[in-house]
Design goal:
The protein has two helices and eleven strands. The protein has 238 residues and is of the alpha+beta class. It is globular, with a radius of gyration of 27 Å.
Length: 238
């Protein structure tokens, strides 16, 4: 009986030692992948640090379209569907710093200031285009010069509706119009000659202060953004 107990104890000690050795190897392989072990895992790439939120920046953002029948601006919560025809505007999407389902029809400058009264906020966009051959292209739009790369497929116009005299007519922004005070508060999408080669689009709007809100690759490091799908009604049965 004593010999049996000693044998059992020896087996337990061997199993315990082996388990400890195996666990330590696994941990060391993960924590120190440069040690040269075949089972070492690659180190995860650190996520870029987000820009801290500040009290002078808005807490929300929405893309709106004008419902001309009811004379109200409506939030695009998920997708905007319409027929696409060359040189017929898809829509001019307006940005307001809120997520209310409806905002008033009134003068843009007055409605804007109902939700935001600081001067530090800028607005930018990402537009991702999916082509019918399953390729895609994403562009970042901060200035008028960023709108030209898709021109034969899609004409893109941006406007500063905030810094205008109420009641006066104004046009889209050109390169010479852009200053440090410019706020690109709306974006118009108009089909070009090759619009039939675009399957669908995604439009994102976001708030930022300066270029510290982006990585070197152009990725957004801020917190406040919204994304909608822009869809061709003629393709919804595809």
């Amino acid at each position: 009986m004593k010999a049996l107990k000693l044998a059992v104890l020896a087996v337990i000690l061997i199993m315990t030692f082996t388990a400890c050795e195996s666990n330590n190897q696994d941990v060391n392989s993960v924590l120190s992948p440069t040690m040269g072990t075949a089972s070492a895992l690659p180190m995860a790439t650190p996520e870029p640090t987000k820009v801290p939120m500040t009290p002078d920046m808005p807490a929300s953002i929405g893309l709106y379209y004008k419902d001309r029948d009811d004379r109200v601006r409506r939030l695009v919560d998920d997708s905007f569907v319409s027929f696409w025809q060359e040189q017929q505007d898809i829509e001019c999407f307006e940005v307001f710093l809120t997520r209310e389902k409806e905002v008033p029809w009134g003068t843009y400058q007055n409605v804007w200031r109902q939700f935001y009264s600081y001067d530090s906020c800028k607005i930018g966009y990402y537009l991702k285009v999916l082509f019918t051959d399953n390729t895609e292209k994403t562009i970042k739009i901060l200035k008028p010069e960023d709108t030209k790369s898709l021109w034969e497929y899609l004409e893109i116009y941006i406007y500063d509706d905030v810094n205008q005299t109420p009641g006066q007519w104004y046009s889209h922004l050109e390169e010479d119009d852009y200053t440090k005070e410019t706020i690109c508060s709306s974006i118009k999408l108009t089909p070009g000659a090759k619009i039939d080669q675009i399957s669908s689009m995604e439009l994102a709007a976001f708030t930022y202060k300066d270029m510290s809100y982006f990585t070197e690759e152009g990725d957004f490091l801020g917190h406040i953004s919204t994304v909608i799908k822009v869809l061709n009604k003629a393709r919804q049965g595809d």
